[in-house]
Amino acid sequence: MGNGDGQSRIDEFLDLYKQMEDALEDKYRGTRRHYSSVVFEFAKDYESGPVRDKLDVCREIRNLLTHNPNLNGEPIVEPSQSVVEAMKEVLDFVKRPPLAMEFATKGEQVMKASLNQKVLRLMEVMDKNGYSHIPVMRDGQFCGVFSVGSVFRYLLRSGGEGISPDTTVADIGGHIQVKDHMENYEFVSKDATYITVRKKFEHVKGKNKRVSVIFITETGSPEERLLGMLTPWDVLGEPE
Length: 240
Hints:
This protein is of the alpha+beta class. The chain contains eight helices and eight strands, in the order αααββαβαββαβαββα. Strand 6, helix 7 (194-202) and strand 7 form a beta-alpha-beta unit. Helix 1 runs parallel beside helix 4.
């Protein structure tokens, strides 16, 4: 490998790093920062989780390149092509944070229930597949969420009576209404970022409750077609 290659990679790497710094300056402008370096601020911000390892490597290399650039006239380090690629990935992540939709189960693949479905049969399918929440749809319209909690509340309020092989989702309709259980669900628009939904899942609401499922619709309204569905596993399982 000729030194020319190494120098051009150094130049490209430093240029990409500078672009990242500029983008982060924009991102944190007007916010209260904890560190003087925007890059360090981002590295300590949990938003950077998915790219933090790459970011840390790039920060180290950049520090070596700028503080001890030469030893006997030779560059002390030369970023490899894979480091330059990593730098590009980090820059791309900073400029275009991933959307929640990229992590969601797409609307057409989400298991849905209809109002005339039998509750016990639905529970069998949920148990077999490990599903905790099933959106209930009518003519493509969202009309509620069937969950373990809906059955629990129905049994509790009926004194333990009331679920037979013939019981349908419509029969327990009062317990699947979204407005009654909004502490468990959130609706976000298709433009919502991965970070937005991650924050929603991590936020503890009243009575130590957390959001257990997030639905994605066009503008975040329950009246719209379901585009995707997220559970905490979809985003909190991301590598730190």
